[in-house]
Amino acid sequence: MGQQDKKSIPMELLSSLFSGGKGNRALDEQAWLTVMRLPLFDGLEDAERARLRELADQLLADKAFSGAGGIEVEDGMATVIAAFAALPVLNLGYEWYQDWREIVVYPGEYVFDGELMDEHGIVHHVRHERSGEVLEGGPMVLSWEDVEHSGKGEGYNVVIHEFAHKLDMRSGDTNGRPPLHSGIDPAEWAREFQIAYDDLCRRVDSGEETVIDPYATESPAEFFAVLSEYFFEVPDVLKREYPAVYGLMSRFYRQDPLARLN
Ligand SMILES: [Zn+2]
């Protein structure tokens, strides 16, 4: 989505942006009240909302927000991002988001135009449109226009998507498997996610109009990030399509959004 001017971020600009200060935002009350009324947060109990707010406060104090492509990140915008980001770690704790600092916000989808080195040390020139991305151990980039489309209970949430990548990366590999709590069998996780991933790939390849965004078939990492969006935004869809994956995600995130939203 996004019809705005496409901006590109040269790598030099990226690195200069990421020297910013720490925790430069305060929670905006009006923005908090507004975002809490979105369908995504339906059914949360008062104690959960209080914990969500604590996590959002921690995020605002910990991350350095900056705007790019001509946008100023106001506290209200940072508050919306923090609210979405807090939900996945509601029962995990803020420490899951530590070890990186920068969140850069673009007005809309932006064109990434720069060089990336792959795991073999080969540098590729890449240029494509993005609504968000994360760099391992490094910054998160978000399109504000996409943030504004998030939280509506329609299966789309760029903030949850990018933060899910950050959780995934904590295992050392970006492979769709975050560090698992004891009690979750890694073999079961690998098996059930693989079955679901293969199923979606097969359906997309055969031209089927899938209810789950075909972008999830890009890689196991994208599968986890996209399905995390469905888990929180439209848990009924995920539970219907891939019940075993829903169950594993529920044990990982320690939440049952389906029970909460119904
Ligand atoms: Zn992604």
Question: How many domains, in number, for the residues?
Answer: 2
CATH superfamily of the largest domain: Glucose-regulated metallo-peptidase M90, N-terminal domain
The CATH architecture of the largest domain would be Orthogonal Bundle
Unreliable stretches: 1-7
Helices, by number, come to 11
How many E-type strands? Answer: 7
What does this structure look like?
This protein is an alpha/beta fold. Helices cover 45% and strands 13% of the residues. The chain has helices spanning 11-17, 29-36, 46-62, 75-86, 144-148, 158-169, 186-205, 220-233, 235-241, 243-253, 257-261; strands spanning 8-9, 64-67, 102-106, 110-117, 123-130, 132-134, 140-143. The strands form two sheets. Strands 2-3-7-6 form a four-stranded mixed beta sheet. Strands 1-4-5 form a three-stranded mixed beta sheet. α4 links the parallel β2 (64-67) and β3 (102-106). α2 packs across α4, α3 packs across α4 (75-86) and α6 crosses α8 (220-233). Bound molecules: zinc ion. Zinc ion (ZN) is lined by residues 161, 165, 222, 225.
Quick summary:
The protein is an alpha/beta fold and 262 residues long.
List keywords for this structure.
Collagenase (Catalytic Domain); Cyclin A, domain 1; 7 strands; 262 residues; 2 domains; globular; four-stranded mixed beta sheet; alpha/beta; disordered N terminus; binds zinc ion; 11 helices
Task: Furnish the topology, listing elements before pairings.
Layout: E1 8-9, H1 11-17, H2 29-36, H3 46-62, E2 64-67, H4 75-86, E3 102-106, E4 110-117, E5 123-130, E6 132-134, E7 140-143, H5 144-148, H6 158-169, H7 186-205, H8 220-233, H9 235-241, H10 243-253, H11 257-261
Parallel strand pairs: 1-4, 2-3, 3-7
Antiparallel strand pairs: 4-5, 6-7
Helix pairs in contact: 2-4, 3-4, 6-8, 8-9, 9-10
Residues 161, 165, 222, 225 line the site of zinc ion.
